[in-house]
Amino acid sequence: QDDIFKNVVSHAKEYGFIFPSSEIYDGLSAVYDYAQNGVELKKNIRDYWWKSMVQMHENIVGLDASILMHPTTWKASGHVDAFNDPLIDNKDSKKRYRADVLIEDYAEKLNQKAQKEIDKARTRFGEAFNETEFVTTNERVKGYLEQKNTILQRMARSLETENLADVKALIEELEIACPDSGSKNWTDVKQFNLMFGTKLGASAESAMDLYLRPETAQGIFVNFLNVQKTGRMKIPFGIAQTGKAFRNEIVARQFIFRMREFEQMEMQFFVKPGEEMKYYEFWKETRLNWHLSLGLGRQNYRFHDHEKLAHYANAAADIEFNFPFGFKELEGIHSRTDFDLKAHEQFSGKKLQYFDTETNANYTPYVVETSIGLDRMFLAVFSNSLQEETLEDGSTRTVLRLPSVLAPTKAAVLPLLKKEGLPEIAHKIIEDLRWDFNVAYDEKDAIGRRYRRQDALGTPFCITVDHQTIEDETVTIRHRDSMKQDRVKISELRNIINTEVSM
Ligand code: ATP
């Protein structure tokens, strides 16, 4: 699994998808840049989301609110008081950990201990079966696993009740059960606010403390009435937005899974109070179907219904995806009640209510939210698509089986030779196709190597111009996944590509 993940990271760099930020200065932790191919894939994911959420829904409109917002926004939303992660420092190593992640790491160590016992026993029993030894090994393994489960349950309880002393005690206990590098010397567990602060204004005295938004949702809530009135929107309706969000994450170690600057795609759906559960179920299903439409495999998704709810929610679920490091949250669907609109009403002193023309009454709508990280979605698609294949002749190829609709480049046009008029024809084909698709040209290296390079970039089609093209205006078109080649008329290319890559 580790190897698969390393492969994903190095492939993303080698083929121009993702680079570490400011790499010449040794990078900045958990901040990344999208390169020439990455930016296209990311844009296509965003467009695919936007089309299905906004264009395809009569009652959902878009918005692009600012990253900087009035600071009171974050008091009202609860982020100033409650947007925290539990943090613990190690006095010996001077390292900082997120307490819950540290406990999960220790639990994983217990798992590994159990696995080691099993492996050892396997080799021994392979030589001669010994019943007494079998029973004691069994007991030890059971012991480790039970210990692991109790610990995770205790952690969940202590975090839920914010019993930070208990979290610390748990870590110390685990240190004894799984000593790491000698004795560890832990500080108290503290709550750490994840918002990035900044300042607005020139002079030190008058400067105003601001935050970079940690979620895009609040920009939607504060604009709720503006959009509803000017768009003459009738409940139920939604407002969708994509944009950057910032979180000063304590652990940042899973490539673009957990970044400090990332992009969200969020939609807030405003409904009549009492109808929120109906729409919560509707959006859970609709969002899962959106994921399934990309064909990454049903077995790679599962719901995780939350038992512990955030202060604003009365129901919440994650859509989890099977990343190279296991099932983790990809998207959240939250029934946020009227918490946000009511809080903004209270803090701003402005009414944020909907006037229902059928009943002639005002009310504060309830909100159902769908919130997905664009970068996490990128990682899901990219890691799932990257495959090493052994071909019939025994050779291997690396192929990025991206859903064609998301591929950065839809077709590469390749002249068989660099002469005899073939490059000119190839360029003419490109001129004609580039109105509709991203098309690339490549004339370097043998044709087989050029095919492999396009496979690794995820390009669904390669179009090869050869001598026969001069005679009858036909080319070969090669399919990335099947590697099958067909001879077709140049005039048919647009249709063939379009059937596979259009949204
Ligand atoms: P996590 O539990 O993984 O920290 P969260 O529950 O805090 O995530 P939300 O606040 O619900 O996440 O944000 C909605 C979505 O935004 C998440 O499902 C995820 O896809 C994305 N997201 C959140 N934090 C990050 C991050 N640091 N880097 C990349 N994407 C993120």
From TrEMBL:
<dbReference type="InterPro" id="IPR027031">
    <property type="entry name" value="Gly-tRNA_synthase/POLG2"/>
</dbReference>
<keyword id="KW-0436">Ligase</keyword>
<feature type="binding site">
    <location>
        <begin position="257"/>
        <end position="262"/>
    </location>
    <ligand>
        <name>ATP</name>
    </ligand>
</feature>
<keyword id="KW-0067">ATP-binding</keyword>
<keyword id="KW-0963">Cytoplasm</keyword>
<dbReference type="InterPro" id="IPR045864">
    <property type="entry name" value="aa-tRNA-synth_II/BPL/LPL"/>
</dbReference>
<dbReference type="Pfam" id="PF03129">
    <property type="entry name" value="HGTP_anticodon"/>
</dbReference>
<dbReference type="InterPro" id="IPR004154">
    <property type="entry name" value="Anticodon-bd"/>
</dbReference>
<feature type="binding site">
    <location>
        <begin position="369"/>
        <end position="373"/>
    </location>
    <ligand>
        <name>substrate</name>
    </ligand>
</feature>
<keyword id="KW-0648">Protein biosynthesis</keyword>
<dbReference type="GO" id="GO:0004820">
    <property type="term" value="F:glycine-tRNA ligase activity"/>
</dbReference>
<feature type="binding site">
    <location>
        <begin position="247"/>
        <end position="249"/>
    </location>
    <ligand>
        <name>ATP</name>
    </ligand>
</feature>
<comment type="subunit">
    <text>Homodimer.</text>
</comment>
<dbReference type="InterPro" id="IPR033731">
    <property type="entry name" value="GlyRS-like_core"/>
</dbReference>
<comment type="function">
    <text>Catalyzes the attachment of glycine to tRNA(Gly).</text>
</comment>
<protein>
    <recommendedName>
        <fullName>Glycine--tRNA ligase</fullName>
        <ecNumber>6.1.1.14</ecNumber>
    </recommendedName>
</protein>
<dbReference type="InterPro" id="IPR006195">
    <property type="entry name" value="aa-tRNA-synth_II"/>
</dbReference>
<dbReference type="InterPro" id="IPR036621">
    <property type="entry name" value="Anticodon-bd_dom_sf"/>
</dbReference>
<feature type="binding site">
    <location>
        <begin position="262"/>
        <end position="266"/>
    </location>
    <ligand>
        <name>substrate</name>
    </ligand>
</feature>
<feature type="binding site">
    <location>
        <begin position="329"/>
        <end position="330"/>
    </location>
    <ligand>
        <name>ATP</name>
    </ligand>
</feature>
<feature type="binding site">
    <location>
        <begin position="373"/>
        <end position="376"/>
    </location>
    <ligand>
        <name>ATP</name>
    </ligand>
</feature>
<feature type="binding site">
    <location>
        <position position="215"/>
    </location>
    <ligand>
        <name>substrate</name>
    </ligand>
</feature>
<feature type="binding site">
    <location>
        <position position="98"/>
    </location>
    <ligand>
        <name>substrate</name>
    </ligand>
</feature>
<comment type="similarity">
    <text>Belongs to the class-II aminoacyl-tRNA synthetase family.</text>
</comment>
<keyword id="KW-0547">Nucleotide-binding</keyword>
<dbReference type="Pfam" id="PF00587">
    <property type="entry name" value="tRNA-synt_2b"/>
</dbReference>
<dbReference type="InterPro" id="IPR002314">
    <property type="entry name" value="aa-tRNA-synt_IIb"/>
</dbReference>
<keyword id="KW-0030">Aminoacyl-tRNA synthetase</keyword>
<dbReference type="InterPro" id="IPR022961">
    <property type="entry name" value="Gly_tRNA_ligase_bac"/>
</dbReference>
<dbReference type="InterPro" id="IPR002315">
    <property type="entry name" value="tRNA-synt_gly"/>
</dbReference>
<keyword id="KW-0175">Coiled coil</keyword>
<feature type="coiled-coil region">
    <location>
        <begin position="104"/>
        <end position="131"/>
    </location>
</feature>
<feature type="domain" description="Aminoacyl-transfer RNA synthetases class-II family profile">
    <location>
        <begin position="139"/>
        <end position="415"/>
    </location>
</feature>
